[in-house]
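Q: Given only this backbone (319 positions), what sequence would you predict?
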């Protein structure tokens, strides 16, 4: 692959709780990179504990683009991310540096790398109708409706994934076409970047699950419940927003609303996080040209730094 006219882009991907942020900061200590967050929850201001957001002191030392850019009251779309991330990448290249994209929101990575589908904007009236229907029949039944109209989308969306079920049904009702069909023909992002794709993955799922459990308990001890309470007290914040549907926030909010017992909320959050990690694994295993490193086996900073350095020097992804 020849050098792209607009420069190299480094991508550090991986499931939750794999230590991506720490590795990215260590790379930044060694190479002239600009960190860009690829995380659908870190975009929100005031959502710090449940997102494992780096501290203000850490962010001052290691600035990350696309952290704390919108309020929780504001939905943030994939299309907005692609626009904002493209701008951050171009700004990094203009400074003569290399952007390092780091995060675990695989849909963001996929749409940035593969292109955006021509989908309709969110429709508040349609979403209210879907939410009202779900309140009557439940999201598993909504998933069964999705199976009837778009079996391909339903096959990759969990029966309890309210946000994605809602979006898929919304697109179908607004366009009459399955979202899976529209997504199969994305519009390519107009760029000539060369990509170096790296993933932190482990075959030891038991250890990863233990890390997930420990980290969530630490979040609770650090004040996650109070953080959710404060968010819910803000005008315009409610549990149907994408921000409050984030893993951990959704389950704590359900407990605060009296929909479950406290310990059940904790267990549900950890289960949801494990499922998220599994989906992230699946996305990454299906992505081409990815260099995999297992940080639970050995410290990967040496090989990763070498790979990044070679990509920066050559202006090409070493695949």
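A: Predicted residues:
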């Amino acid at each position: 692959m020849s050098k792209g006219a607009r420069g190299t882009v480094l991508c550090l991907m991986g499931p939750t709780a794999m230590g991506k942020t720490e590795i990215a900061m260590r790379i930044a200590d060694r190479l002239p990179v600009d960190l860009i967050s690829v995380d659908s929850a870190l975009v929100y201001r005031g959502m710090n504990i449940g997102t494992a957001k780096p501290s203000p002191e850490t962010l001052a030392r290691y600035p990350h683009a696309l952290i704390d850019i919108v309020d929780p009251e504001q939905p943030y779309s994939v299309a907005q991310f692609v626009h904002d991330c493209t701008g951050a990448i171009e700004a990094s290249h203009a400074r003569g540096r290399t952007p390092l994209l780091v995060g675990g929101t695989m849909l963001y990575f996929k749409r940035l790398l593969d292109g955006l589908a021509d989908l309709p904007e969110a429709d508040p009236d349609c979403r209210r109708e879907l939410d009202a229907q779900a309140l009557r029949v439940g999201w598993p039944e909504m998933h069964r409706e999705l199976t009837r109209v778009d079996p391909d989308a339903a096959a990759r969306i969990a029966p309890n994934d309210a946000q994605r079920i809602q979006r898929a049904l919304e697109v179908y009702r607004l366009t009459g076409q399955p979202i899976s069909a529209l997504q199969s023909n994305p519009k390519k992002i107009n760029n000539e970047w060369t990509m170096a794709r790296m993933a932190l993955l482990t075959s030891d799922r038991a250890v990863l699950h233990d890390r997930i459990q420990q980290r969530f308990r630490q979040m609770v001890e650090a004040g996650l419940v109070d953080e959710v309470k404060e968010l819910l007290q803000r005008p315009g914040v409610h549990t149907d927003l994408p921000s409050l549907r984030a893993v951990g926030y959704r389950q704590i909010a359900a407990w605060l609303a009296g929909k479950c017992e406290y310990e059940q909320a904790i267990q549900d959050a950890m289960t949801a996080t494990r499922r998220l990690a599994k989906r992230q694994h699946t996305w990454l295993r299906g992505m081409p040209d990815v260099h995999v490193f297992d940080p639970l086996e050995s410290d990967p900073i040496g090989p990763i730094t070498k790979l990044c350095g070679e990509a920066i020097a050559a202006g090409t992804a070493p695949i």
